[in-house]
Inverse folding.
């Protein structure tokens, strides 16, 4: 028995260098296949969290609308409009509060973290914070439809005058370069003769290249954004599914309904 055991044991040997290299190569290949999947799964979770943020903000805005004679919250204007003198209750940038600051200070939103998209936390390093001089200034990750609030594009609009609330945009995703810049607290699209969406960062979610485009993307193969509508529902839309920003009736109809509420 002893001799048989000794003979069988002597046949056992360790891995050769080539065999170890093959195993390491297989592990590396599997990791390269799994890591993108895990990254996409993480981004989908962030996308869902962002979508929930928008739904909660939508409910807050609708409550505000009920209390303020059917009007949407004003957004960051001086006393006399563009370039006017500072308002009596102006913030650090000599403007009225942004739409999100109004929701927060009037108690419609209890926690300003609701205004933060989880996908932006790492992408906006070095960008100024939402607070200035100890005062909350406004959301940096979401912008209100400028055609519905006072933002230099005419008078604000009542919710009851929006013909199709389920298809009219209320909030879009954005990324403010400077929290004191009033332009980035609102967003809008140009008419058919001047097409293009301004101050929306496209490709926010599920875009491996993290490409942010400030104007309407002509051809964006990957990525998309969450959009909040005037009826309070939010949905994710791929950039490539949006109408092309060209001078055509399809874009014109979308502009009139989705942005102007007509």
């Amino acid at each position: 028995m002893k001799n048989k055991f000794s003979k069988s044991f002597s046949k056992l040997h360790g891995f050769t260098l080539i065999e170890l290299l093959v195993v390491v190569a297989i592990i590396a290949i599997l990791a390269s296949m799994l890591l993108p999947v895990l990254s996409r799964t993480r981004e989908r979770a962030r996308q869902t969290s962002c979508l929930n943020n928008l739904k909660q903000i939508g409910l807050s805005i609708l409550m505000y609308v009920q209390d303020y004679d059917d009007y949407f919250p004003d957004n960051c204007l001086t006393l006399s409009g563009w370039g006017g003198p500072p308002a009596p209750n102006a913030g650090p940038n000599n403007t009225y509060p942004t739409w999100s600051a109004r929701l927060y200070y009037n108690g419609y939103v209890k926690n300003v973290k609701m205004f933060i998209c989880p996908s932006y936390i790492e992408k906006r390093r070095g960008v100024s914070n939402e607070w200035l001089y100890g005062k909350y200034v406004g959301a940096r990750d979401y912008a209100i439809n400028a055609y519905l609030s006072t933002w230099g594009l005419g008078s604000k609009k009542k919710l009851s005058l929006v013909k199709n609330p389920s298809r009219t945009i209320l909030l879009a995703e954005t990324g403010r370069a400077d929290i004191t810049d009033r332009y980035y607290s609102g967003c809008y699209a140009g008419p058919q003769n001047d097409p293009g969406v301004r101050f929306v960062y496209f490709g926010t979610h599920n875009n491996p290249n993290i490409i942010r485009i400030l104007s309407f993307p002509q051809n964006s193969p990957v990525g998309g954004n969450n959009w909040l509508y005037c009826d309070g529902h939010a949905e994710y839309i791929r950039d490539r599914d949006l109408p092309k920003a060209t001078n055509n009736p399809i874009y014109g109809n979308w502009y009139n309904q989705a942005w102007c509420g007509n």
